[in-house]
Amino acid sequence: MGSFMEQDRSAEQVRLPGDPEVLALVGAKADLWLLLTSYLAEEYDHVPVFQVEGKKRAWCFRYRRGGKTLVTLYPERELFTVLVVLGRDAVAATEGISAGLSARVRAAFADARQFPDGRWLWIKPSFRKDIESIESLLALKRRPKGGT
């Protein structure tokens, strides 16, 4: 089987990619990927689960514990997408901290449709401030080990 990036997404079995392959895939955004995944490893007791999902067979790393997902990361060519699902309480709390969030994260929050149980924020981080804002959103969902 070829490298992670060359795998046939329709294949029934997909080999778990290693860090070098994911970093090569996200390219120039590798520093942001490492910043976020390092934060997740240090602050949360969640083991990322690699999955292939959807019609397009998108690769993702889902950070779950106790049946609840904290965040899902989708590595793509030269970028990655972060999915943060905010429940009702976290939506209300986000409105209170929105001034401190990056413009990209504020836009994702404003553009996300309000469902009865919350909002799904799809964020493509480009700057360190985006990662810091994602960390703030995650802290609203679940307190990090450091308590911040």
Describe this structure in words.
β1 (about 45-55) and β2 form a beta hairpin. This protein starts with 18 loop residues before the first helix and ends in a 7-residue tail after the last helix. It has about 150 residues and is of the alpha+beta class. The chain has helices at about 20-25, 30-45, 90-95, 105-110, 130-140, and strands at about 45-55, 60-65, 70-75, 80-85, 120-125. α1 packs across α2 (about 30-45) and α2 packs parallel to α5. The chain has one domain: Alpha-Beta Complex (Aspartate Aminotransferase, domain 1), CATH 3.90.1150. The radius of gyration is 15 Å and the shape is globular. Strands 1-2-3-4-5 form a five-stranded antiparallel sheet.
Under CATH, the topology can be stated as Aspartate Aminotransferase, domain 1
What is the structural class? alpha+beta
The level-1 CATH class: Alpha Beta
Corresponding CATH architecture: Alpha-Beta Complex
* Number of helical segments with 4 or more residues: 5
Mean pLDDT: 88
- As for the number of domains, it is 1
| Approximate shape | globular
Radius of gyration: 15 Å
Order of strands across the main sheet = 1-2-3-4-5
- The parts where pLDDT drops under 50 for at least 5 residues are 1-13
Helix content class: 25-40%
Give the N-to-C terminal Cα separation. 43 Å
Oligomeric composition of the shown chains: single chain
Note the main sheet: 5 strands, antiparallel
Give the H and E element order: HHEEEEHHEH
Strand tally is 5
Beta-strand portion reads 25-35%
